[in-house]
């Protein structure tokens, strides 16, 4: 699956995007964030407070307990504010 990173999530990880194959035990957005956080220091910093990082599955906002099975693209980004 393709993962996109935006704003400070991208800055901390150091990548705009990547393609990953998480293990079968990674079934939800929260599972994926935890798996990514274990991949290294930049990931750990990006997901140190996973409750504030937002996600979109195939361009639709998703909750942490949303299933990722069959998803082609997942985006992680910080909360947005309007102006």
TrEMBL record:
Gene3D superfamilies: 3.10.20.30. It holds the Pfam family ThiS. It comes from Ancylobacter pratisalsi. SUPFAM superfamilies: MoaD/ThiS. This is Molybdopterin converting factor subunit 1. The lineage of its organism: Bacteria, Pseudomonadati, Pseudomonadota, Alphaproteobacteria, Hyphomicrobiales. InterPro entries: Beta-grasp_dom_sf, Mopterin_synth/thiamin_S_b, ThiS/MoaD-like.
């Amino acid at each position: 699956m393709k993962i996109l990173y935006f704003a400070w999530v991208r800055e901390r990880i150091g990548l705009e995007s990547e393609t990953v194959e998480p293990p079968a035990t990674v079934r939800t957005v929260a599972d994926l964030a935890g798996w990514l956080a274990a991949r290294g220091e930049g990931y750990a910093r990006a997901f140190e407070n996973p409750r504030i990082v937002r996600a979109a599955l195939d361009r639709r906002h998703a909750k942490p307990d949303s299933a990722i099975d069959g998803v082609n693209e997942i985006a992680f980004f910080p909360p947005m504010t309007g102006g």
